Structures are given as structure tokens and as C-alpha cells.
Amino acid sequence: MVKFIRIILVVVITAVIFFSCGDLNRKVDDKIDKLMKKAESLDSLINKDVDKVLQLDSLINTGSEKAKKLDSLINKSTSRLDSIVNKVINPAN
Asked: pTM for the full model?
């Protein structure tokens, strides 16, 4: 009789361990799923911000090119004005 109770006890303990592991496994899977969703959300947010930075960089480059062209035009205009002023001030040259 004692042997039968030990066998039943071992079977019950084994079943409890298996069910506990299954429940723990389900909880771990749920946590992993939540973590993956958060990681995907963060990745999406980072990609959006990187796109914004790239657009801003492009705008900065475009602005820089326009500033260089404007600087070049100003230098040419200044040279022309200097030449005209020099001809008016020193007409003998």
C-alpha cells in the first residue's frame, strides 16, 4: 500500500512540474512577444527619425549650395562694382 501511495505521489508531483513548466513557458512566450512588439515599435520610431535627419541633411546641403552660388554672385557683382568705381575715380587709367 505504501508503495502504491509513493507511485501516485511521484506521478502527481511529475504532473505538477510539467504543468508548472508549461505555464512558465507560456508566460515567457508572452513576455517575449511583448518585448518583440516594443522592439519593432522602437525600430519604426528610429527609422522615422533617421529619415527626418536625412531630409534635414539634404536641406542643409541644398542651402549650402545655394549660399555658395549666392556668395559667388556677390563676389562677381562686387568685382564689377569695384571696376566701375575705379574707372569713375581714375578715368586716366
From this structure: 0.54
